[in-house]
Prior knowledge:
By secondary structure, this protein is of the alpha/beta class. It is built from 18 helices and 26 strands. It folds into 3 domains: 9-282, TIM Barrel (Alpha-Beta Barrel), CATH 3.20.20; 291-489, Glycoside hydrolase family 3 C-terminal domain (Rossmann fold), CATH 3.40.50.1700; 545-663, Sandwich (Immunoglobulin-like), CATH 2.60.40.10.
Amino acid sequence: MAKSKKYDINKLTLEEKILLLTGVNEWKTYSANGKVPQIVVSDGPNGLQMFDDDNNRKSATAMPALSLVAQTWDKELAYLDGETIANDAIENGADILLAPGVNIKRTPLNGRNFEYFSEDPMLSGVLAREFIKGVQDRGVGTSLKHFCANNREKGRRVQTSEIDERTLNEIYYRPFEIALEAKPWTVMCAYNPVNGVYASENKKLLKGVLRDKLGFDGLIVSDWASVQNPYKSIKATIDLIMPYNELTLDSVKEALAKGNISMEEIDYCVENVLNLVEKVQNSTPKMNYNKEQRHQNAVKIAKAGITLLKNEDNILPLKDGGKYLVVGDLSETPLGGLGSAYVQTDYVQEPVAKLLAEKLPKSEVGYDRAACACASWAGSNRIKLEYAKRVYTEAYEKDAVIVFVSGDTESESFDRSHIKLKKEYEEVIRNLARYNENIIVVINATSAIDMQDWIDDVKAVVIEGFAGEATNEAISSILAGETNPSGKLAESFPYDLEDTFTGDDTGNGLVEWYNDGIFVGYRYYEKYGIDVLFPFGHGLSYSEFKYDNLSIEQTGECDFTVSYDITNVSNVDGAEVSQVYVKDVFSMVIRPEKELKGFEKTFIKAGETKRVSVKLDFRSFAYYNTALDKWHVENGAFTVLVGASSADIKLTGKININLDDSTQQSQALVGR
Ligand code: GLC
């Protein structure tokens, strides 16, 4: 660990050293009696969540949730997202943004899925890496979190995530490994135990894996109040225990006296704190967007992430001159995620009905907020019937009805209890469909929704996710055809919860056994041949794209460039997310049917053709071999699959890997 050049550890008393290893309150580090400048940390992944001295939330730009950023599949927009939030951080004096979270979306029930990117480790890691660059290029630090395997909220402070070594490396470490390429200033440990030891005390995890194996050389901060026993966490190389932990001083002094911790171990963490302080002091935070520009950035990202899942009879975009009815109050005040990622914005959104009327001036756009309440509304049946009769009468006369719905609450601290829409929303959709065949459903949710009870009754489904203060502008622009949707799902949407591996199993309270292993998300559904409602990587456009002319060029021993043409054969400019998957045809270990190893989002004008290239390298073909304890590529045949989604493969090609025999294990001759 490099010694800080600016702050001399030898000028600190023992007490000052120990107290430097915990915050001085919820959000600030200790000043060591003025010897060391304090650092201010603040959430979060979906925008700045900061509190003033009276503990009131400050307003900031409510950005699209990271789950929606993931649906953009756009590295530049992930960067822009981080950059934009950094501006709010600088404006409010935060030195470090406690984001991004890259926990894998292993179960759609996880309450914090809105804060995370994907079920796929590469998509998660790459977008997190760009987000981190966006924040840190503005001179603000980040905290890559939560290391690791915090994949549901239930029992997060108690229940161990029991995971085998290969799965940890290929699925749960992997997004961190990729994101570490951006050199986040800090990494935050998870609440949960991993394989029986709290992440905050797990030296193998924090020192052995994060630092020594993955090469992280920054500061490890605990999740808030995740430290059970300060000296044990410091021994595991938690450098900063947050928030202020009153047990720290006595715990460390006592352990020192008993020889349960050494001065070297303490100094190791103190140096990491001093190095972080130096990093903050040496940075020159520089804003580059004013408040309006930050809002526009939010709108740009939201427009690129909102995903069109179904569009029967090309009912979308809405035609100008039609008669439409917008139903549901979520079209006025959309939901966002709750907990530490919540963002208080002072931006007042215009209702979707109003925005649509402006964008479609020849149209008649009605609005009824109450419809979605009438089914569950506490009002008398007579009034409910009146509401119902009125809304459905209105609907009957329209060319199309756009109904805004949501699922179970998405929040930190608890998981969703189901993955359907709220009951009253399902009822309203079915009722509306009785009176109008052109129903468009807009889902204000961020993780998989079971739609099987109503999807056949509707013509179109759009998932708007949690888009923050940009929600209404972005969804209106897409519905009106001003914006051509280009988002794609970053998680699989199963038909129902029973089709997922975890189902409603939430562990036994002490242990959640990850015996799905590496088969998470599409890896699971494809391995077991389970159909899903909408596959990973799925998303429709108002354009139509054709793929051809695949070429695979070998540029090194294990390096290839996969290139292909995409032609926009429609008359609408659009952007296409193409995905490159790799399959190991023969292997001495079980492997997924295919794995995402590259992706590009390409803007293509109507009638134009663009050639896209994706590079594959050793890690594109490797699996984690626990006998060798390293990433390993077996020689032999691999298939490259280029798709518009994981289930819509457009082009395939073959590669033969032939690495030097010295790198290979003796292999069964079958298939060679
Ligand atoms: C919370 C979250 C973490 C957040 C921290 C500070 O419990 O787990 O993501 O950054 O505490 O609010």
